[in-house]
Design goal:
Catalyzes the reversible conversion of 3-phosphohydroxypyruvate to phosphoserine and of 3-hydroxy-2-oxo-4-phosphonooxybutanoate to phosphohydroxythreonine. The chain has 10 helices and 14 strands. By secondary structure, it is of the alpha/beta class. The strands form 4 sheets. The protein has a 7-stranded mixed β-sheet with strand order 2-10-9-8-5-3-4, sandwiched between helices. A 3-stranded antiparallel β-sheet has the order 11-12-14, covered by helices on one side. It has a two-stranded parallel ribbon with strand order 1-13.
């Protein structure tokens, strides 16, 4: 099989051992004589997968009992609508921090539902850094932020601590499970699975029971968080195969040594790449401000568009996949989610060094 270094931004690399396990069990899941995809979502066998995924998430992320873990669909993008539909009313104001395209999209959906306020923004800096100086509106429904900006390659190091009555909501699609987080400072976390959690199809939501009580009763059933909480995310047919894959990825994370190990490894990988960029004497330029740099998406440019094209072309020939920057910003991006190995990052650094020597 062709050797590939997968730096895709999502769907992204999955741990090889997880794929192998899924392959082993594919036709005959735990001696049921069926694939996990063929099981009824009401069967005992599927239920154990479902519960395992939920319990492992709680264990690994240290989710307190005062929170619920939900499995939804529609990707992170549907959460952009679900959040204001549940929590934005005629008498409060949704607060958004703009740190990139995904937060802009989240705000756009909230504006269709009610009054919104931009509490902070780094748009004027081309989203090259994490915004500071948060100014909340009066009567805030919540404050929404994007913890890792997949396109611009910036990441919140620490989450803002808000007054007790203001729920913090975090889109953690591209950095959930990559590091330890203070769950109790965040009232709702959501993430599409297709970066650190598994294949696309399931959206994980971690919500405090306190916030759950505030869901608007007129929210459509399938967008109302209470529907999922009250029915163990089995109100209708969940994405069973994605949840099964999630359970395998979570087992892998645990076997690796949990978030302490994962976080340390992610730092090493990111440092390796940023180091290569910083030592390139301006041949490669990191697009994010140093103190805002993401440990998940390393974004950089080359001196000219022609060199960028040549870099991407030669990289592809050598088996490096997914290095083109997002279509909105161009340049290059190496997405180094949990399943991307240190070995892949070392190979990329070596390729970057060689490319620079041959093209300076
Ligand atoms: N938020 C962030 C931070 C993302 O990176 C993405 C996808 N790349 C989305 C939201 C949208 O996710 P989905 O495709 O699951 O709707």
């Amino acid at each position: 099989m062709k050797k590939v270094y997968n730096f895709n931004a999502g769907p992204a690399a999955l741990p090889k051992t997880v794929l192998e396990k899924a392959q082993q069990e594919f036709l005959n899941f735990q001696n049921t004589g069926m694939s996990v995809m063929e099981l009824s979502h009401r069967s005992e066998e599927y239920e154990s997968v479902h519960v395992k995924a939920s319990n492992l998430l709680k264990e690994i992320l240290e989710v307190p009992d005062t929170y619920e873990v939900l499995f939804m669909q529609g990707g992170a993008s549907l959460q952009f609508s679900a959040i204001p539909m549940n929590f934005l009313h005629s008498n409060n104001i949704a607060n958004y921090i703009l740190s990139g395209s995904w937060s802009e999209k989240a705000l756009k959906e909230a504006e269709k539902i009610g009054n919104c306020h931009i509490a902070s923004s780094s748009k004027d800096k081309g989203y090259s850094s994490i915004p500071s100086a948060i100014q909340l509106s009066k009567n805030p429904a919540y404050l929404h932020l994007t913890s890792n900006n997949t396109i611009f390659g910036t990441q919140w190091r620490e989450f803002p601590v808000l007054p007790a009555n203001v729920p913090l909501i975090a889109d953690m699609s591209s950095d959930i499970l990559s590091r330890k987080i203070p769950i109790e400072d965040i009232s709702l976390i959501y993430a599409g699975a297709q970066k650190n959690l598994g294949p696309s199809g399931v959206t994980v939501v971690i919500i405090s029971k306190q916030l759950l009580e505030q869901c608007h009763k007129n929210t459509p059933t399938m967008l109302n968080y209470q529907t999922y909480a009250e029915n163990n995310s089995l109100y209708n047919t969940p994405p069973t195969f994605s949840i099964y894959m999630l359970s395998l990825v979570l087992e892998w994370v645990k076997e690796q040594g949990g978030l302490t190990y994962i976080e340390e490894k992610n730092h090493q990988k990111a440092q390796l790449l940023y180091h290569a960029i910083d030592l390139s004497e301006g041949f490669y330029t990191g697009t994010a401000k140093k103190d805002s740099r993401s440990f998940m998406n390393v974004t950089f440019t080359l001196p000219t568009k022609e060199l960028t094209q040549l870099f991407l072309h030669q990289a592809k020939e050598k088996g490096f996949v997914g290095l083109a920057g997002h279509r909105l910003v161009g340049g290059c991006r190496a997405s180094i989610y949990n399943a991307v190995t240190l070995e892949s990052c070392k190979a990329l650094v070596e390729f970057m060094d060689n490319f620079q020597s041959n093209n300076r």
